[in-house]
Write a structure and sequence with these properties.
Order of helices and strands: HHHHHHHHHH
Helix content: over 70%
Largest sheet: none
Shape: globular
Radius of gyration: 20 Å
Low-confidence stretches: none
Number of helices: 10
Mean pLDDT: 79
Distance between the termini: 71 Å
Number of strands: 0
Strand content: under 5%
Length: 211
């Protein structure tokens, strides 16, 4: 955490963006979540506003994820042999996500953001299987919008004890993010069902009037 804070200290916005792009490629020895928590610390120090920190984090995440998507779309399976990415794209994860993608489609890409170990594989496969980029971007943006504000806020509120914030984050991030993801999917499907039900009612009413 100290090394991340040192890197962010000079230009917290640009540094946050850059580190998150690198995190998307699996490069730094720290996780995306640590960088986001650190950005919250600098909000507490007055280096930038909360909404600025959220936007820098959100943009950095999307940029990093877009690179992975692009590698899937334009480079393909040859990436599996690259030393930098090989460790993050294990064969068992690739096969498992392929099955998830063909079974659940866009929902699988969305849920992957909340599953450690699957995120990079999911975005690469999405590109490789030619998922439309605009659709990928919308799904990824929405997933980041659910997680980033909470993480920045945690770093801001617990700035005096970031190690404790990091500990809490690792302890509760998976159940919290999975809950958020499942709740979002439930609400989306519920809304879709209500729209279909309403459409069916309108059709029935129209058929009654035409008799």
């Amino acid at each position: 955490m100290e090394s991340v804070l040192e890197i962010l200290s000079q230009h917290p916005g640009l540094a946050t963006f850059g580190l998150l792009v690198l995190c998307g490629l699996g490069l730094p020895p720290w996780s995306e979540e640590i960088v986001i928590l650190a950005s919250g610390y600098f909000v507490s120090q007055g280096a930038f506003q909360y909404h600025e920190a959220v936007l820098w984090c959100w943009a950095g995440i999307l940029a990093g994820d877009t690179v992975i998507y692009g590698l899937g779309a334009w480079v393909g399976p040859g990436v599996y042999k690259w030393p930098i990415l090989r460790a993050h794209m294990k064969e068992k994860h690739r096969h498992k996500f392929n099955r998830m993608f063909f079974k659940h489609g866009t929902a699988a890409v969305f849920i992957a953001r909340f599953l450690p170990g699957f995120r990079m594989v999911a975005y690469f496969v999405a590109g490789n299987l030619r998922m439309r980029y605009w659709k990928f971007l919308v799904i990824d943006s929405f997933g980041a919008a659910l997680t980033v504000p909470l993480s920045v806020w945690a770093g801001w509120m617990l700035a005096d004890n970031l190690d404790h914030a990091q500990e809490l984050f690792h302890k509760f991030q998976i159940p919290i993010f999975i809950f958020i993801g499942l709740l979002t999917l439930f609400l989306y499907r519920r809304r879709k069902q209500l729209r279909l039900k309403r459409l069916e009612e309108l059709r029935s009413q129209r058929a009654e009037r035409n008799r």
